[in-house]
Structure prediction request, 174 residues.
Amino acid sequence: MAYINDNFIKIPATYLFSEIAKRVAQHKKDNPEADIIRMGIGDVTLPLPDASVDALITAANEQRKSKTFRGYGPEQGYDFLRNSIVENDFKSRGMDIEADEIFVSDGAKSDTGNIGDIFGLQNRVAITDPSYPVYVDTNAMSGRAGEPSASGQWTNLVYLPCNTTNNFVPELPK
Prediction:
């Protein structure tokens, strides 16, 4: 028999970005002349550079031939990519770095969530407040966050308030 991870049920149905979208829509309705700068979801505002699009096309074309097809890459990333990062992003700027110091992943969001899997559930996690929702959600899904409270915060997370006027240093649980 398969059992469900009950921690998923604890996550509130309201997601930050859908809430932002609702509030922006209401504000636009109430203030049709307002010039709104959207900074919620981090969507791009300019087209991709030609070099990026050309590289994507080349990579896609490589996938259609057995001779140039690549499946899943090595766990640290392809050597040609890591060497290119060394040469173009570091050595070209005078920094001494080797390819074995480069790790290519699918992104910081999944890496951040996966790092938590290394640690036991009895560890306490500190979250900046505000925080990107996935950082809280990955801890909630693993069972590290405890229970959601009426205030919207989780019982087992340590919240680190972040604002321009606060030098607060939380007292961490012993």
User: Anything to note?
Assistant: The chain has a mean pLDDT of 86. The radius of gyration is 22 Å. The chain is about 35% helix and 5% strand.
